[in-house]
Amino acid sequence: MIKWIKEWVPVILLAIVLSMTIRTYIGEAVVVPSGSMLPTIHINDRLAVDKMTGPNDLQRGDIVVFYPPLPDKKDERFIKRLIGIGGDTIEIKDGALYRNGKKVDEPYIKEPMKYDFGPVTVPKGKFFFLGDNRNESYDSHLWPDPFVDASAIEGKARFRFYPFTDMQPM
Description:
Layout: H1 2-26, E1 27-31, E2 46-50, E3 63-66, E4 78-85, E5 89-93, E6 96-99, E7 102-103, E8 117-121, E9 126-130, E10 148-149, E11 153-162, E12 168-169
Antiparallel strand pairs: 1-2, 2-11, 3-4, 3-11, 4-9, 5-6, 5-8, 6-7, 9-10, 11-12
Organism: Aneurinibacillus danicus
EC number: 3.4.21.89
Keywords: Hydrolase, Protease
């Protein structure tokens, strides 16, 4: 019994430490809990999230995992599309998104927006997110503080690995 403990305990501890390190700093799998990103991402899809992509590496249009600026949801992670970065002016009118005064082509959204919003200017070091299912998504356009701080960014969704029939890069 003691021989078994001496052989296996270090191996098990190393596996635990490696697993925690990878999950914390490199990447992890997330399950999509809602339909806010339909039709791009479906409920219960599994995504691989790259945690090495920092806030400064994100681009408009990326699908990002983050903690929202909502006190009652501070421990929940959201998955939305990055719409605006620091300095961008965002406006939604007549069913369309405008960034810095120019209409944005968004072939990925489920349907045109049925609401108006803004204009708002995204502060430096902050981000503005919307779900692709715009009329059903609880996102920046509905929050009291619509901007997500860079420190709340968890990572960029890189790959859908489940369901297997829909495996693809994001």
